[in-house]
Amino acid sequence: MKKTVLILCAALSLSACSLFPPPYKVPVPQGNLITEEQISQLQIGMSESQVIYLLGNPMIRDTIKPNEWHYLFSVKHATPETLTSGSDNLVLTFNNGTLTQIKNN
């Protein structure tokens, strides 16, 4: 009888953890949240200051390629309700202060 009660208690205590909902995980957004509307407003020929006004400062300004700006975005522990960006990796290339190329990955 003692063995049966002990086995039953052990089985119930081990399975009890799965009865609770999983803990809440806070979504951690990192980078520039860029909407589809902002991407549609980008135009070749815009100045650097116009791009900064529209999208904000870039996440990465490469020292080797100073004319290439990278706008990155990622979310860790994303849920369906989490905000999503229109672009995970947007690369803008400038020549003499004007936008010449847009790469949206």
Automatic annotation (TrEMBL):
Outer membrane protein assembly factor BamE domain: residues covered: 31-102
Gene3D superfamilies: 3.30.1450.10
Bilayer topology term: Lipid-anchor
Protein's cellular compartments: Cell outer membrane
Cleavable signal peptide: 1-18
Keyword check for Membrane: yes
UniProt keyword list: Cell outer membrane, Lipoprotein, Membrane, Palmitate, Signal
UniProt xrefs under Pfam families: BamE
Annotated family: Belongs to the BamE family.
Assembly and oligomerization: Part of the Bam complex.
Function according to Swiss-Prot or TrEMBL: Part of the outer membrane protein assembly complex, which is involved in assembly and insertion of beta-barrel proteins into the outer membrane.
Name of the protein: Outer membrane protein assembly factor BamE
Source organism of the structure: Marinomonas sargassi
